[in-house]
Structures are given as structure tokens and as C-alpha cells.
Write a structure and sequence with these properties.
4-stranded antiparallel beta sheet, flat, single chain, mainly beta
Length: 210
């Protein structure tokens, strides 16, 4: 069993709050303030729950409880251990947000001079009215230096979603390989009515496979 208490300021009311587990082995049940959120039977895939409808704001604390059951041994070729074994994240966004795991990065064209990086980003609008949004994506090298960036605008319908597709040219790309695992990152900022609504960082390597 795990239990953790935390408080949220009243200014966080109206935000969307998620609890993400990167790894729990296995058969985990999760509660927030006595409300059962669900059971995850598998132990190796990240998952998350939306805490928003069940939270307290202000002085009243929130209590997360997690029960992990790995009693049905053996279920692997060797003993796996048990419990929460990777990071756990409390994620806060506005009602217009980048969907969890909604960013995908591919490198469809690569030459020695340039590589085309295609970033596909799914954005959700939980407001009733259309949301004018701007998505800024910057490609950073391994030292954190911006090598190229792009901005795209779109009106996302109320209760709907939109997939931004941005193509960014990276000059003189450093290619990923098993011996030189060079990683770039895509730093994204979503703005709604001029204010930052969400942000995301995604690591990726530039490589082609045939």
C-alpha cells in the first residue's frame, strides 16, 4: 500500500489535473479522496488517471492511495519485484491542452545537409466555445540550443480536437545510432488567447531504417 497527501491552491480550480504512473508492478488499484479511479492489470506500461472531478482546493488536503498486488507468482521467468518502481507525476493543464502522449515525431527525409522533422501534435479543447490556439515547436540540440522552430495557428472547435502537423528542417543533422545515441528534443508551447495553456518536451533521434 502507498498513501500520499497533497494540497492544491484555490487558483488551481478550473485546471485539469492528471496523475501519471510510469511503472507499477502489478495489478494496481488507485483511489483519490476515497474515489476508486481504476485497476491496471499490467505492470510494464505507463498509465494515468484524471483526478479533476474529485479534488479539493485550498486548505483541505487530497489523499492518493495505491494498492499493488503481485501475489499471483510466478508470472514471469524470474521474480519481478513489486510496487511503484518508476516516476509518478502530477500534471496540470488548462481546459485546452496537448493530449497525453499526443505528440509524435518522425524524420521522413534525411540528407547530410538537412533532415526533415515532422511533429504531429493532437490538441484537445474541453471548452464549449471554439478556441483560437497557437502551437510553437522548437527543435533543440543536445546542448539545449534551438536549431529551428515553427509556429502554427488553428481554431479548435468546442468539445473537439485538432492535429497540428509541423515540418521543421534541421541543418547538418547529427544522426542517432547505437554507438552515437545523439538526441534532439522538441519543446512545445500551446497558447490559447495569448496565454500559455500547456507545454511539452519530447526527445527523439534522427535516423532512417531500411
Amino acid at each position: 500500500w502507498y498513501q500520499k497527501s497533497f494540497s492544491l491552491p484555490r487558483t488551481a480550480a478550473g485546471r485539469r489535473i492528471l496523475l501519471q504512473f510510469d511503472g507499477v508492478y502489478q495489478c494496481s488499484d488507485v483511489w483519490i479522496n476515497g474515489q476508486h479511479l481504476g485497476m491496471r492489470p499490467f505492470g510494464f506500461i505507463p498509465f494515468f488517471y484524471d483526478l479533476t472531478p474529485h479534488l479539493h482546493f485550498g486548505s483541505e488536503p487530497n489523499v492518493v492511495a495505491v494498492r499493488v498486488d503481485n501475489s499471483h507468482q510466478p508470472n514471469l521467468r524470474s521474480y519481478s519485484g513489486s510496487g511503484i518502481y518508476r516516476h509518478t507525476w502530477l500534471i496540470s493543464t488548462g481546459p485546452v491542452y496537448i493530449e497525453q502522449w499526443g505528440t509524435g515525431v518522425t524524420t521522413p527525409q534525411i540528407t547530410q545537409e538537412n533532415a526533415t522533422v515532422e511533429v504531429s501534435t493532437r490538441v484537445r479543447n474541453e471548452l464549449t466555445l471554439a478556441a483560437p490556439c497557437k502551437l510553437s515547436t522548437a527543435v533543440l540540440d543536445q546542448d539545449g540550443v534551438v536549431v529551428q522552430s515553427a509556429e502554427t495557428e488553428a481554431d479548435i472547435p468546442g468539445g473537439g480536437e485538432h492535429v497540428f502537423v509541423q515540418r521543421i528542417a534541421v541543418p547538418r543533422p547529427r544522426l542517432w545510432s547505437a554507438t552515437t545515441p545523439y538526441l534532439y528534443s522538441a519543446r512545445q508551447v500551446l497558447r490559447h488567447q495569448g496565454a500559455e495553456a500547456d507545454a511539452m518536451n519530447t526527445s527523439f533521434g534522427i535516423r532512417s531504417i531500411q
